[in-house]
Amino acid sequence: MSEPAFQRSGLGDVIPVPADVRPDPAADFTIGPGTAIRTAPGSADAARIGELLAALLRPATGYALPVGEERGEIALLLDGDGDQDGDEGYRLDIAASGVTVRAAAPAGLFAAVQTLRQLLPAAIEAAGLQPGAWALPGGRIVDRPRFAYRGVMLDIARHFFTVDEIKSYLDSVVQFKINHLHLHLTDDQGWRLEIDGWPRLTAVSGGAGTGVDGAGPGYLTRADYTDLVTYAAERFVTIVPEIDMPGHVNAAQVAYPELTADGVAVAPRTDTEVGYSSFVAGKEETYAFIEDVVREVAALTPGPYLHIGGDEAQATTAEDYRTFIQRVLPLVAKYGKRVIGWHELAGVELPETAVAQYWRIEATDEGTARAAANGSKVIMSPADRTYLDMKYTEQSLLGLDWAGLIDVERAYGWDPADRLPGVGEEALLGVEAPLWSETLRSLADVQTMTYPRLPAVAEIGWSPRATHDWESFRDRLAAFAPRWRRQGIAFHPSPEIPWHPGAPE
Ligand code: ACM
């Protein structure tokens, strides 16, 4: 029997499971010392993705794996059919003579690279040379996503995570074809993005002691944020910045007392209560501030979205909430961005371009259904399925439990098109798994809550509904234990999963 780290993958042993898989057991291809990578002529993107693939394969194989346009048994080509493949789809042919990937756009080549990576033995993820037989299973995969938006959210307001930690997290999530990283940048405790003209936001509310229970300090400078946006774009991930308002704004009011009703400074808060702070809907200073913030965040963000929060505004009257949101919506449009808001926003009439993110646990939501009927898109993030900060079991040391316990089967066993009456397949932009960080202090904590549940949400968002199958998913997920160990990624060893063994060297 082969060592677990060299256990062969079948052609369909991929998460998210590909749309169409046709194995050909006679056509395995083995990567060898002479293998080269050939990329689409004249495409800098294809060349860059070829280098990313080579960089993934070189440490464990020890092979040179040169990348060029002239020759190579592994070909990354941009001659897909845009109508069939979309931007992220790809066709992957593995034959005894070599591997050919065809996509209509670079994002499809990147997605195919993530598939190829999973088809190799887990030892490919090792940082150093492995005694390998680097066989890829023969056959054909034709794949494209069910939904355009497959996201994960990281809360860097409650506890801050550094640029390097966020990059590392991003590297881990792209393996599962996640293509949006929503950054929750501001909350009652802290403000984590530098804004020109409002230096106290980060000097005070990004300073020492601003994390939950006095952790901290931390914030992203403009240069940090730009660096992250670029790093994400190189991996076909869109950053979605969130500035939460009109609630969850205590940190802004600590820094600038003119944003409170009476202009008197409020005390910093590092507890985890919610629903007590509010911007003042009837004060012009509020909108002058928000316009500056929206203009700057929009200018720093190449992606189409700006998330304005809108959740848990219990300290804002219904009338003020409506007034406030109706003032802010045109500001976001003025600076060229499309609004995303937590679904409470859908209580206000929204433009068709706005996106509502459903996050609660109830079985119905009138506002979200009405927004969908009016042509707005919806992102599904029901807390009882997708919230990565919920505990796995009562024994979990990390996380919260207000939306219940979420084991892997619960994270997998639902469908976004069935979740809310009036919000079917056509209304969905996609799915997102939010990770709130009240209890999470380190990257290892973040990883432990993310894995193994994020792959479940990723598969629901990418793979055709007809392929969803818990038994199959569980078996494919099991193969990630030796991969994550080699990648240095912490995960919760959920007892539901028949994990493959394989310790890192
Ligand atoms: C939320 O969990 N308050 C969106």
Quick recap:
The protein has 505 residues and is of the alpha/beta class. It folds into two domains: 20-143, Chitobiase, domain 2 (2-Layer Sandwich); 149-465, TIM Barrel, CATH 3.20.20. It has 16 helices and 17 strands.
Q: Can you describe what's shown?
A:
There is one protein chain. By secondary structure, the protein is an alpha/beta fold. The chain folds into 2 domains: 20-143, 2-Layer Sandwich (Chitobiase, domain 2); 149-465, TIM Barrel (Alpha-Beta Barrel), CATH 3.20.20. 31% of the residues lie in helices and 16% in strands. It contains 16 helices and 17 strands. The strands form 3 sheets. An 8-stranded parallel β-barrel has the order 10-11-12-13-14-15-16-17, surrounded by 6 helices. A 7-stranded mixed sheet has the order 1-9-6-7-5-3-4. It is elongated. The two termini are 19 Å apart. The relative contact order is 0.12. The model has no long low-confidence stretch (mean pLDDT 97). It binds acetamide (ACM). Acetamide binds at residues 311-312, 342, 359. The site of acetamide has 4 residues, from loops.
CA distance, first residue to last residue: 19 Å
The radius of gyration computed from the alpha-carbon positions, rounded to a whole number of angstroms, is 23 Å
SS class = alpha/beta
Counted up, domains total: 2
Q: Which tags fit this structure?
A:
16% strand; single chain; eight-stranded parallel beta barrel; elongated; 16 helices; Chitobiase, domain 2; TIM Barrel
Set out the fold topology:
Blueprint: E1 20-23, E2 29-31, E3 37-39, H1 44-61, E4 67-68, E5 74-77, H2 82-85, E6 90-95, E7 98-102, H3 106-119, E8 134-136, E9 139-143, E10 149-155, H4 163-173, E11 180-184, H5 200-203, H6 222-234, E12 238-245, H7 250-255, H8 284-300, E13 305-309, H9 318-334, E14 338-342, E15 355-358, H10 366-373, E16 377-380, H11 383-386, H12 408-412, E17 428-435, H13 443-450, H14 454-462, H15 470-478, H16 480-487
Parallel strand pairs: 3-4, 3-5, 5-7, 10-11, 10-17, 11-12, 12-13, 13-14, 14-15, 15-16, 16-17
Antiparallel strand pairs: 1-9, 2-8, 6-7, 6-9
Helix pairs in contact: 1-3, 4-6, 8-9
The protein binds acetamide.
